[in-house]
Amino acid sequence: MNKRIHRYKAWDTVNKRWTQSGIQFNNTKMELEIIPGIVLLDFTGKYDNKESELYEKDIIKCSISQTQHYWGVIEWENCQFVVKAFWFKQDKIGDWQNEYELASTENLRLGDVVNIKKLGNIYENPELLKGGTK
Fold it and tell me: Does residue 1 lie within any of the structural domains?
């Protein structure tokens, strides 16, 4: 049985930067200190194609087949990580010429997607939520 690695990042919504505030560790357990303006983001246990760690609220491009490609945000929902896909494109095999189109919001299980490319996150790169062009 694979044991999930618990690792967190903390985003300071007031100062708009990553911080260590709000996360306290001791020898036996992790204690979370609730601080207004701090958002904790959970490590998914997965990595993108360049071995970058994937966290909640990361914006990624991914595929579920050779022809179906998505662009979305990683979320924790119903006890699992999902990609809330908001851009979609359908290609012929080997043909990446089509543009992304606005998708009806689909939830893809993070464990089912492949060819993951981390583009950024919703805090540092909110402009990425507007268009599937990168």
Answer: no
Q: What is the pLDDT of residues 40-99, one digit of tens each?
A: 899 999 999 999 999 999 999 999 888 888 889 999 999 999 999 887 777 765 555 556
The beta-strand segments (E) located in the chain are 8-12, 17-19, 23-25, 30-32, 38-47, 53-55, 58-63, 68-77, 80-90, 101-109, 114-121
Domain assignment present for residue 2? The answer is no
Are residues 73 and 84 in contact, defined by beta-carbon separation less than 8 angstroms? yes
Tokens of 31: 């204690």
What are the structure tokens assigned to 44, written together? 């998914």
35 is a domain residue? yes
pTM: 0.81
Tell how far CA 107 is from the center of its chain: 12
4: pLDDT strictly greater than 70: no
